[in-house]
Write a structure and sequence with these properties.
The chain is α+β, with helices and mostly antiparallel strands. The chain is built from five helices and eight strands; from the N terminus they run ββββαβββααβαα. Strands 1, 2, 3, 4, 5, 6, 7 and 8 form an eight-stranded mixed sheet that branches.
Length: 231
Amino acid sequence: MANSASYPGPSSDYPLIANFDSAHLTIGAGVAIFHLATARVVVCYHSTEGYWFLPKGRRDAGEATNTGAEREGFEESGYRNRLLPIPLRHRQPQAHNASTLSSPFVTEPVWTQFMPVSRSTQYILFWYVAETLPPDLDASLTQQTVVENGAYQVPPPFPAETTVKQRLAGEEDGYEPLRHQNTGVNEEEQLYESYLLPLDEAVKKLRGTIMADVVVRGWEAVRARKTMEET
């Protein structure tokens, strides 16, 4: 797959100053959900309007933005997922009272978008990198969903001491992540189809959008993590 050095991706805009009260601001999140073992990514397709996109949406009131990203990823695509800690340049400080050495891997957004909803309302969208869940965890959360009458189950985070290689050892060769049916929460989301696509194909379908670069940068970060863990 083309890397960010050769792929003509977007660049950051200039910083801006803007102020919005709670009645004029919507916060959302989206995810590039990778199946690490096969180098594929989940891409959604609007069956009536004919466009491709990564799953995304508004976070619920009181919900953490990263949790909202995972939930929206599941609801719009049908694939259970969790954020994947990756090596990423960012400007967030480390916790001042951390008792151990900080991990080089973080779950910060790889891109943030500012988009108007109307002349007076602003939408802020954070893009994260995630992975499909291990089969045993997917099955466990699915069973818990049944017990709790369909309530969304927040997955546990990626284990701090687990490497990508160790994570992949938990999947049998040829394992295909489960796409759950009827996870959309409204009529619009019921129109979405989703597919696990090879990375180059996904980038072509998303070309011209920030979402293409989320896939490119996300997979570069996955590869960088694996290299760091093996050296």
